[in-house]
Amino acid sequence: MQLQETIDAAVAEVGTVLLGKEPQIRLALCCLFARGHLLIEDLPGMGKTTLSHALADVLGLSWNRVQFTSDLLPADILGVSVYNRNDATFSFHPGPVFTQLLLADEINRTTPRTQSALLEAMGEGQVTVEGETRPLPDPFFVVATQNPVHQSGTYPLPESQLDRFLMRLELGYPHPQAEREMFLRERSNRGERKPLRQIISQDQLLRIREAVMQVHASDNLVDYLQRLVAYTRNSPEFEVGLSPRGGLALLDCARTWAVMNSRGHIVPEDLQMVLPAVAGHRLVPSGDYAGDGAALVTLLQRNVDVIRP
Amino acid sequence: MKVEQQIPRNALVWIIISLFTLVLPHIERVPHWVLSVYVLSAIWRVMVYRGRWSFPRWPIKLGLIFAAFAGILFSYRSLIGLEPTVALLLAAFAFKLLELKERKDAYVLLFLGYFVILTEFLFSQDLLIVLLCVVNVVLVTTALVALHRPGVDSFSTRPLTKASLMVLQAMPLMLVLFFLFPRIGPLWTVPIKSQQATTGMSEFMTPGDVSQLSRSSEVAFRVEFDGAIPPRSTLYWRGLVMSRLRENTWSALDYYEVPARERRPQEPQFTGVPLRYSVIMAPTQQRWLYSLRYARSTDAGILNAADYRLFRPVIIEDDLLYRVTSWPAAQLEERLSDWRRRTELALPPQANPRVRQLAQSIAADAHDSQEIVDAVLTLFREQPFVYTLQPPLLPQQDPMDAFLFDTRRGFCEHYASVFVIMMRAAGVPARVVAGYQGGEVNPVNRTVIVHQFDAHAWAEVWIQGQGWVRVDPTAAVSPERIELGLEEALAGEGSFLADSPLSPLRYRRIDIINKLRLRYDALTYRWQSWVVGFNADTQLQLLQRWFGEFSARTFAVVILGSWALVLIPVGLVLLLRRKVHKLSKLDRLYLRFCDKLEKRGVTREAGESPSAFASRAQHQLPLMARSIADVTQRYQRLAYAGTDDSDRELDELARAVRKLN
To answer: Which ranges carry the ChlI/MoxR AAA lid domain (chain A) (predicted)?
Structure first.
């Protein structure tokens, strides 16, 4: 199928700048195909920004990049009305949010006030400035990056805001082989970013979305999903379980993942593949539990039976 | 401290509440300082909770323990015995509040609380006490429930509802266990002789050494007749037969004081219709039982003494139920043995010379024993003798002389004693019988309630050809005492129950109080006959009635059956309330496939998806790789892809699974 090849090509294209990170690239694409916003969390210098730029390139989307700092104000993102002396009116100067793909770099370095300015944009695809609601272009994606919360100078995103991100990805250190390759190839070309080719056209993006809508989720699969969700709510290891929205997010991503694997129906592996990225930031371990969100996901995957109730 | 180890505020409140209600039934018995220990401990613990004070350190705790021991020793003059140990337990129970830091301490305290509830039954198994104990069980359970609701900071009664529900749910199990579970005798027992003085009959009778006979309204025993209740004047409940007079004191012969060949009672002549009845008596800390003459009981452990009374070799420490058959008209001991005649004629030499002289002069005029008896009774009837509960004290030297000729005021003991002395002096074998006379008929359940104030003493004389005959000299003096009871006999004196102003018996002229009293008494009777009197023997009888002859096998069946009786409904409820997860046929097929692979050593993990499992299984069982792939593909298609022609594919899957061997 064409779509499959296109997607594989897009993954390969991003892979040329982010070596050895195919699973994360696929998940990131899956998130965007599922019309979700993406949060990339890792230490500085792990390729967060590289990935987000590459995504914008291969999708051929107009993009803006905002570097979040502690003194950034909501108006710096949403835009501001400026008095025009010639015709004596206020004219709106749209902020960087009016784009198809917004790269919000180091989102947790800005104040909660500015963070929340993004909320409406992310949730509803529109912004309200000075009482006037303005629609954002379609598609509209936010790809945010953040440093791990315990780093200094960060304002951790509240759970409500984390929930707006469909997925949270961690990139991690590259494989030694990939890293070696990178060391050999890169020759101090910092600053000169070569844009990648656009692989997926707007039309193809729409078709992917249509295909996602068609994906079949069988009773057996929904049973498994419900068992997963119920486990997070009933087990003592979880302080906060998956919300209904979290469950829906899982199902959406699994659908998309199925399409990316050219299947018309979801199988349990689809759920299991997207589970860490989709559920990891939505689960909160209870006070006694030593592990973090990732450990909870492992627990969930290991303990919830795929077949047996 | 972790949250789940903390004691929630609500639980602390309930613990303190239950602590106080636990000590409530003991309140009359324990010294007052024990109660202040409760108040102080509670205050201390609350102050600890509020952060004002801190938990006591070990030197203080050690001091408190020693103080408690010293207090018990001071209050009771002993550390051994039922009351001191229970008081010590109660004090320690309160002190435990000062160690209540974590949840596990609360467990210790509350489980100890259940034990403290039980200690109350060592003293009383009264119906109201039992109800109070049930309330206590609910309260302790409430504290336990509250302990398991962390973070409840405000006082809440929700645990109470839950605990009541739990206790209610436990009731059927309790009933089954109570009625059916075998009563296993204790492996060891501690003599729990209570220091409480028991009112009622004593082993000795010394007329004249008390001037004020105090009589309580406590119930001595209750009797239920199988047929009609005989007239009150014939109800002479024999307890002790006192054949020996020594230093003005009458006493009964011990079992071993009777020569071996005299120990078995002579078989009496059975005449007349037997009376059948059952008796429930309150604990007396004595060995003798009460019955009408001539009594026989087939209950285990009840023996017949040579003087035709019933006794038990062990002390009666609990409420006791026994069944008796009596032949009131039976002739007892037609032939008197030499030893018996000597015993029943023995009098201390020189004592009471005037009484003996009078008796001998009466005997000289009489032709036979019956005439002597009649003459003495006539003497009592015609001379100005007075029946009173407040007789004057009699001198140590020859008290009966003083009574018969000077004071002439006395109660049953005086009359019985002087009568028997006169009979013996006149050569008629006679003895004093102590027991109860009469009783109150409760119209509610047709039982006879015999109170302590019905205690009585009368005489038996042996007459040739008739055997032992009952003679009640008190009846000659005060016929009302026998016909109508003590209250009427003392109507003029006002001394009836003068010591118990609160006894409801005093107010029985008020109709509603009397009715309530009788109703409650009927309830108590039922309680005692069904619950308190339910021992291993009655249990065996019950089981025999249900299951016929009893063997080890039926016993095992009954035990297992009683467990099943409880566990099957519980299991059913659990089963029905369980969320029903019925496996579809498809999943059953797939799981059968997994079972087959498991037999070959490849076990599916819970979180393993079909395809992941299949690839692992294929790797481990390469020979079956194709059929594994086949089954997995079919299953995945049916389970996830939503095919249309599922029936046919299901059959194919079934065939594929079956083929797998």
So the answer is: 232-286
Reference B230, options B298, B289, B277; nearest CA is: B277
Interface test with A, best of B4, B609, B657 (most A CBs within 10 A): B609
Give the list of residues 6+ apart from residue B413 with CB closer than 8 angstroms, or none.
B205, B207, B457
The count of domains in chain A is: 2
- Of all residues in chain A, the one with the smallest CA distance to B594 is A307
Tell me, yes or no, whether B132 and B94 share the same domain: yes
Plot region of A125 (φ>0 → left; ψ -120 to 50 → alpha; else → beta): left
Would you call A221 and B581 a contact, using CB atoms and an 8 Å cutoff? Answer: no
Q: Total domain count for chain B? A: 3
Cβ contact, residue pair B606, A305, below 8 Å: yes
SS3 B593: helix
Asked if A106 and A168 sit in the same domain, the reply is yes
**Active-site annotation holds for B594:** no
Judge whether B583 is closer than 8 Å to chain A, CB to CB. Answer: yes
Interface probe for B, chosen from A220, A228, A271 (most Cβ of B below 10 Å), is: A220
Which residues touch B594 (CB under 8 Å, ≥6 apart)?
A: A307, B603, B604, B613
Which pLDDT tens digit goes with each residue over A144-166? Answer: 888 876 667 778 888 878 888 99
| Contact yes or no for A200/A59 (Cβ under 8 A) | yes
Contact B607 A303 (CB under 8 A): yes
Residue A186 and residue B566: Cα distance in Å, rounded?
Answer: 78
CA distance B634 to A307: 15
C-beta of residue A278 within 8 angstroms of C-beta of residue A166: yes
ipTM over 0.90: no
C-alpha distance from A267 to closest chain B C-alpha (Å): 6
Torsion sign, CA atoms B354, B357, B361, B363: positive
| pLDDT, tens only, B390-449 | 788 888 888 888 888 888 888 888 888 888 888 888 888 899 888 888 888 888 788 888
Q: What is the CATH number of the domain that holds A107?
A: 3.40.50.300
- 3-class state of residue B192 by DSSP: coil
Q: Say if B640 is an interface residue toward chain A (CB within 8 Å).
A: yes
Q: Are B83 and B197 in contact (CB under 8 A)?
A: no
Q: Are residues B418 and B477 both part of a single domain?
A: yes
Residue A297 domain flag: yes
Q: Is B451 a catalytic residue?
A: no
pLDDT in tens, B462-477: 888 888 888 888 888 8
Domain range enclosing A99: 3-189
Band the pLDDT of A137: cuts 50, 70, 90.
Answer: confident
Of B364, B370, B413, the closest CA to residue B389 belongs to B413
Q: Which chain A positions have a beta carbon within 8 Å of B604's beta carbon? A: 307
Q: Please tell me the distance from the alpha carbon of residue B615 to that of residue B608, in angstroms, as a whole number.
A: 11
Contact between chains at B636 and A303 (C-beta distance less than 8 A): no
| B523 part of a folded domain | no
| Cα gap B111→B95, rounded to integer Å | 15
| Phi, psi dihedrals of residue B193, rounded to the nearest 5° | -70, 120
A148 upstream amide cis, omega within 30 of 0? no
Give the gap in angstroms from C-alpha A303 to the nearest C-alpha of chain B: 6
DSSP state, B293? S
Judgement on whether residues A185 and A227 belong to the same structural domain of the protein: no
Residues B219 and B350 in one domain: yes
Q: Which residue range forms the structural domain that includes residue B152?
A: 3-180
CA gap B612, A61 in Å, rounded? 37
By the 8 A CB rule, do B23 and B90 touch? yes
- Nearest to residue A56, comparing CAs of A101, A121, A13? A101
Residue B275, in any domain of the structure = yes
State the CATH number of the domain containing residue A252: 1.10.8.80
- The reply to whether A126 and A24 lie within a common domain is yes
Comparing CB atoms, the residue among A216, A300, A305 nearest residue B641 is A216
